[in-house]
Amino acid sequence: MPQEKPLSASRHHRWVDIKPEQMNPLTARQYIVGTNMMLARIVLRKGALVPMHHHFHEQISHVVEGALEFRIDGKPVTVRAGEILCIPPHVPHEVVALEDSVALDIFNPPRQDWIDGNDAYLRGGGR
Predict the structure, then answer these.
(1) For the chain, what is the domain count?
(2) What is the distance of C-alpha 101 from the center of its chain?
(3) What are 52's strand-pairing partners?
(4) What is the DSSP pairing of strand 27-33 with strand 75-80?
(5) pLDDT one-digit tens code per residue, 9-61
(6) 114: part of which helix (H) or strand (E)?
(7) What residue stretches are annotated with the Cupin type-2 domain (predicted)?
(8) In this structure, is residue 6 part of a structural domain?
(9) 113, part of any domain
(10) Is 125 domain-assigned?
(11) How many CB atoms lie within 10 A of CB 16?
(12) Residue 17: exposed, middle, or buried by beta-carbon count in 10 A (0-12, 13-18, 19+)?
């Protein structure tokens, strides 16, 4: 049986304590990194665009507020508040904010490109 880490290895976070990173005029993000996954809070204003991209990370996207249109394999999938989309690794996708929105994205493993600042595709961001 694997030995569990003590509670002292746990970390408590509050979004209000994490400075948002303004990616472009319509998109801001915050994130926390665990051992094997990353949780990001993305705020997208209506019209924000996350251009077509793909990555080896598995992604789970939970729309908390608003509505986002994902394009997966060239097909639109609208995800509204309270809905979740699971995106397997290596699947090309893009996102357009249909209205002001907030999404929580989980990535496994963590997005090292974000941590290193090698994510220029996110920094254009408007239609």
Answers:
(1) 1
(2) 12
(3) none
(4) unpaired
(5) 789 999 999 999 999 999 999 999 999 999 999 999 999 999 999 999 999 99
(6) helix 112-116
(7) 42-101
(8) no
(9) yes
(10) no
(11) 7
(12) exposed
